[in-house]
Amino acid sequence: MVHSDLLQYLKGQILETPPLLAVDLEGQTIVITGANSGLGFEAAKHIYKMNVCYLILACRSLERGETARKAIMASSRLDSPGKVDVWQLDMSDYSSVLAFGDCIKGLTTLDAFIANAGIDMAEFVKVGGHESTLTVNVISTLLIAMLVIPKLRESSKVQKKASHLVFTGSVVHIYAKHKALSEPKTGQIFKTLVNRSEPGQSSVILNFVHPGWCKTELFKTNDGGMGRRVALRLMGRTSEEGGRPLVHRAVADEKSHGKYLAECRVKQESSWARSDEGHQVQEQLWPELVDILEGIQPSVINLE
């Protein structure tokens, strides 16, 4: 990371607070993964208050998801409250991801899918044939994206307006030091997905959102030691503030398609991501991921 990248990050983290959006989501169906705690939970509360028609909380634990559902519905008294359901989704289990994708097919429409579920592990744990962070934050995240894109496209065609696929930084752009896949490389995967999907079209608006450094349960298994804990206390945003950018991108306009966003606005990607090396990594990683995804579910890659 060069000085300009660090300066942009610190300026946004310390001096800017993501604004709270106020829009009417009447008639919309929105899915949020990792919705029982942290950013996903706070984003779900915001969305529920915005008159959403159908909100689906995708959670690994149905019990914790149900607790979150009750808390979300109790957070705001609405004259005509939308429907809120809990669906099971374990991102460390490919069969669970595939089953969830089948459930998505049964929806009448899908206006926005917010891929928020992610982990940050301090120790090496192998899951699904790969290191757990790689499995959850990259492979399963891209797998679920491939499974929901057809429904998002279908909904866009029926409703004659763009639908939204949102990736959060905590999912694909947070783990900078792991040997398996570094932060810049995961960002390149998102760029590849954008570049290879719907050329010349924007029926599905894809956004990559960095919510900032937030005080969430993401770090409960890897708090980084005393220095990181002190810095997080001094600089960290609340989960509520971190959930705001997720809501913004779920209703973003076409100009934001494929962009990197922080503090609810478009910002420049890192110098590495814009470099020749970054572009080379993008091209190298995509075929490898395609092979992995096709091994899990043949013909799942369909971006034409």
UniProtKB/TrEMBL annotation:
Keywords: Oxidoreductase
Keyword match Lipid metabolism: no
Pfam families registered for this protein in UniProt: adh_short (PF00106)
InterPro entries: NAD(P)-bd_dom_sf, SDR_fam
A single GO molecular function term of this UniProt record: oxidoreductase activity
Recorded superkingdom: Eukaryota
Protein name: Short chain dehydrogenase
UniProt gene name: yanD_2
